[in-house]
Amino acid sequence: MLHSVTVEEILTRYYVRYERLDQLIPYAFEGSKSNELDLYIDLYGLYHTLYSRSYATVINDYTAFTSFLINMCAHYRSYFKYQGVYTHIYLISSFNIPDETRVNLPEYNKDMIDKLSNKQVSDMMNLNLEILDLLVPYLPNIYFVKTKYESSVAMYHLMQTRKDAVSARRKSIPSLIISTDEYPIQLCSLVDDVAFLWPRKYRGEDISVICPPRGHSQHRNDFWSVITRKNSNSVSFEKVGTLSTSNLALVEALNKFSARDLKVIYNITTTSKMIRELNGVDIELVPDIVFKAYSKIPEDRYSIIQKRYNALSIPYQYIFYSESTEPKILKLDNLEDPDAIHMINDQYFRDNPIDVFRL
Q1: What was the pLDDT predicted at 354?
Q2: pLDDT of amino acid 2
């Protein structure tokens, strides 16, 4: 019989305790004078867990996902407000199954596709996504963004958009990604002032870890530390710890990316050796450079590595996103109507009310 876990228990794991935040945030953003922060909460990790086949998800309240999610926003907003920092919060929703990627890599995230056949959880999620669409526009500077692309690609777009908007004010606003998925950490090496927070609990203790932005003295060390921890013993820090963080997509294309069901091509020893020999410690490499240096790579393997790299590279995936209708129809409404919030709260969340006073 499968072990049972409630929706509430799953969502609580995404809450990083204030004592732990007190340790991680000043460290990651040392020297920052900004009184604003863009907070990106990646919902994919929650989806992946809710649809787990390792245990049974108990749904006691069909709207609990929404109320706990909004209260999570209140949890983080309250923390940063106490620090004198005001937050813009982006809830990024995706099942991370991009159509363009699946055409070239049918096995890409097949596990998630199989999980979506769970009708009970799907019905619950569909209801909550509809409520989030209705509710979030009334919450102050909180935005709900749905995408058919990788959630990281939507974040990349929002970061670029925000950068353009605030540059007119001659200031920089740092960003913090909260996610249990490995893919978004790539943004720390692509965009300035972006940190990645991995919520993690063990035996009741909060052992969450953070990767600081590029330019931080410990960026490379913490970046690869997160990668190797998430991959347990299958990826050694000793093998990858000196590589440029900009080569993560290449490492995963050559080696594996279990989080999207991409299996091993070259073991991590061979992968890191290939990149290191090409001076990939400090520079960004692309598959073509590898193929030219290692001409004995079979043509069929050459093709699959290139397809995997394209799937895992945020800038490459962003090409498809930017040419789609998504960025053109994206609306970040900010209606801020307290009466509407109270009405929706009373109608949908009697058992698990939203903590409106901390929003």
Answers
A1: 75
A2: 58
Q: Read off the pLDDT of residues 93-143 as tens digits, 9 standing for 90 and up.
A: 999 999 999 999 999 999 999 999 988 889 989 999 998 998 899 899 999
pLDDT per position as a tens digit, 198-233: 999 988 899 999 999 999 999 999 999 999 999 877
CA–CA dist 15, 18 (Å, integer): 9
Residues comprising the chain, all counted: 359
Band (167; pLDDT cuts 50, 70, 90): low
The closest of 301, 275, 276, 277 to 286, measured between CA atoms, is 275
Q: Which of 359, 350, 354, 337 is nearest to 137 (CA)?
A: 337
- State which amino acid sits at residue 208: S
56: three-class secondary structure by DSSP: strand
List the structure tokens of 63: 């709207």
Q: Which helix (H) or strand (E) holds 38?
A: strand 36-42
Domain-by-domain residue ranges, the chain? 11-339
**Per-residue confidence (pLDDT) for residue 343, from 0 to 100:** 77
Which tokens belong to 19? 């004592």
pLDDT of residue 17: 97
CA dihedral 156, 162, 167, 173 (to 10 degrees): -90
